[in-house]
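Comment thread on ticket #2218

A.B. wrote:
> Attaching the input chain for the structure job we discussed in standup.
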Amino acid sequence: MTRVDPEVAWCTVSLYIGYLAVSGEMATSQKLTEHFLTCTICTEVFDKPCTLVCNHTFCRKCVVNYTKTRPEALSAKSLMCPFCRKMTKVSDPERPVEEWADDVKPIFVIQGLLDSFGPGSKDTTNCSYCKEEGETTPATSWCAVCDDALCERCTRMHQRMPSSRHHDVVDLSGETRVKVKRKVICKVHKNKMIKYLCKDCKTAVCQTCCIIHHRKCELVVEIESEIPEMKTELRKNKKNLLRKHNEMKTHVGKQTFKVGEELARYVQIESNIKSASVTAIEVIKVKERKLLSELKEMSDRHIGQLKADIKSGEMSVQMYQQQAELIDQALQFECDMDVYEMYQGCEAGDVEAVGVVDVMEKGRIDRITFRQDTDKLSRALEDLNLGEIHVQYDDVLDLKAAPVLQDTINVTVAGDEDEGYSHDVTMLEVNGTDTVVVTDYYNNSVKSFYTRNSQPGHSKLSVEGEPYGITRLKHNQVAVTVMGTSQIVTVEVNPDLVLLSTIKTSKQYKGITSLTQSTLAASCKSPPCVDILDMSGHVLKSVCPDHEDGNILDRPKSLCTTRTGNILVSDGGTKCVLCLTPEGDVVFNYRPTGHTALKDPRGITSTSTGDILVTDFSQHRVIHLTESGQFVRNVMTSQNGARYPRGLCVGGRGRIYLCASGEVKVFTYCK
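C.D. wrote:
> Ran it. Output below, let me know if you need it in another format.
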């Protein structure tokens, strides 16, 4: 179907406007503004509108501001449609981003509607010509060609003039309700009507234009002959739009209902968190009351003992005073008998006996102190777990479900010398297109596979050696290790592949994973290690952890980065899965025996929830480990299609991409 010319589209809209005018509904210009002339981003009438390649129209400022929030659009030097995510190339990408939309104009229909009904459009209440003479005369007609409102007198004059007698003039009285078939006048030849359509130039023209400008064109037909086909296509478009309208309306309704649910759930969770906090605080307060009660009991006892000592001491002071006074009196009276008796009493210890004798009680309190183990308290507070916020994503893998084969991608393409051998795989979303990028070991190439405009496509990039591991660097960039060349290549995915750089390395690496935007981790067989590299290939740190039985690493193969930034390693020599920190510390070493033992671990990946998936090449299975390295189950076997599985990755919408021989198999695990 030939795309409808903008002028023809404007003619169609003009018919609609003319019908509104004839049916006395020119007041519905407000509805036109609301439905056709409102930017969906700012919800205001278009301010300097621009129409993107997808035919969606927005204010220039709005679409630029949106583009500035999308890194993929900035790197592609394109404006991104907020509605469908399609890219519109800009004429001069070197200009500031704020100026990218300046050269993107609105389609003719939008501009025409703005001119007729937008802010500053002409008044249809009073006659335009009388208004120019300083008079205010009610308008009774409207000329769609001149875009002017006319009173009865000016209408008669308008119809008498040769240049305007064929213009489409409709009645504004509201009494006539008959559709008026608009006669559109050529903009170049003012006395000629547009009747033809040049399909070669995709332009609506008059007969004179055909003779002068389109005489060499092969496909010039009458517009009238194309109208049935255009109407059929427009009806299909309308049907599709109404279907999408209803689907989106239903979706909005569901999302609105979910908002209510989520608000209620938020209030409930907030209440639960506060309740857990209150419970924890109450436990602490109970311990506080117990300690204070014990302190008071011991303190009262201690103070009681001290007060008893004071009372006993005061009594002893008094008795010692009395005894001293008696001795003094005996000495003063000079009575031999009194002196003798006092002397005998002192010799026999009566003086001490008269005093208060201290009695040492068992368990007597000497001192009360409060010992606080601050380290233990800190650890206890750190270990205090009020609960966890669990977020469930709609595209999360349900690893308890059975895998469903969604698609199979044959990696052999035209021009390959050998049958394809997919070794490692990753998935990127580039410009709204899901793109699978795979290393083809036998054909010395990196390949991308995608579907665009409902058509499958692929791209092939040859490299100097055998590509082995692959990792995602950015939203549209990957890094690939190349065996036999001591190289790592970086590739841009558009979704077609473009070589960005070749990084020379001092070692030959196999597995690779991105740690940060500026660092990589890569595995090496000789010597067996995992190296931390910068983007120039320099080794920042070499990790080779020791074990009591020897080195843990023997033949490290695939790598991946966990959600916490650690490095997962599958090792074919020690037949283990190792989790390392970037500093080289061992988090766990999965090396079981029995039926869960690994024989030939290859590909490894980590999900957004922290779960670990590992392929066991010779046992035709994919195993599931917890984030801490505990075996869960075999999530895939040869019965599910996991024959000699190698690399794998997790994509959106609950998908797993698995390399098996010359194919990439796509499985879904959605709930």
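A.B. wrote:
> Thanks. Noting for the ticket: The first strand starts at residue 49 and ends at 51.
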